[in-house]
Amino acid sequence: MSKKLYYLFLFIFSFSVLSAQEKLSKEEKARREKNIQAGNPFTQFGYKAKIATLSQGKYLEFHDLDSIVTIGTIRWHVYKNEIVGRIVQDSLNPDAQPIGDRVGRWISPDPLSEEFPSWSPYTFVNNNPLRFNDPTGMAAEDVMPPDDYLIKQNGIIEVTKTNDKFDRFSIENKQGKIESITQINKNENGLLQLPSSINFNSSDSNSSFSLSVKEGNEYRSYIRGDAAAALFGAASQANFKDIGVVGFSLSDGKSPAPSTSHKLGKNGDLRYLNTNKKSASTNIRSSNFDVTRQSTFNEGLYKYGWKDMISERFGNGNLLPHTSSSIERNIHSDHTTHLHLQGFNPKIIKK
């Protein structure tokens, strides 16, 4: 019996709620009907269609009654039947809204969102623009190239993808034999910390080299794998044993202060070579600067990818091969004591 009373009470309560609907004035009813009939496509034929709206006319839900509409890139006056304007697309503005009915990034779901459930589609390049880029607008891509490198005599670097936490470097010596140089672990940002010294003794003595990092600068000796391969290739081409590295990037790919350009482990500084053939601070305008050997080394650096090197004039206003003057480029840091490498564009073949 109690169940019957419960259901009876529930029915009476529901009926009371439904009966207590908002009572509308005559004017409000007319206003709502006007909002509903705004979507009637048969008005011009005198037919009053039944139109379903979400708010039942409380709000105007049809906004296509403008006299001027957008069709493609044309602005069309629907009453005068004539073109009244044209829209010029701003293809260089990544934040520009779409024209007309085209779907834009602001109102369309990301088709790849299910592949990256832990990242919001509004988080550009996984919130790490130093490590990733997004050239297609589809998904973040790792700018750190993979894994194992074969440095060819012709300046090409062959890269093989492997699923490990280190990079291996091999080189084709000047007699055409493939030899191993070294193996370096990658950090969480995909960068390699150059060892304090690397000594490569090739079976071809003309392909050997040695390089060392300036003491105290180990914290800023992080480099990309392809940049390390290019550096080893240039060093082997030059066949020098006194190459000094001042620094590249910090462990997270940022530029160590006060420098601002040593980003992503691809831009770096090297000591100038001297006639003593020992890695030491050398001024390009000093008497012991070895212009011949440095010019040879510059050719190798250019060959393996650094197309824009910054130095300074010396002697009778001379410049080293493939360099420009920091003073003439309005760069305020002193480049008489080191060669700056930038404009990295190596010849990479992915295997």
TrEMBL record:
Keywords annotated in UniProt: Signal
Gene3D superfamilies assigned: RHS repeat-associated core
Signal sequence annotation: 1-20
Domain of life (superkingdom): Bacteria
Protein name: RHS repeat-associated core domain-containing protein
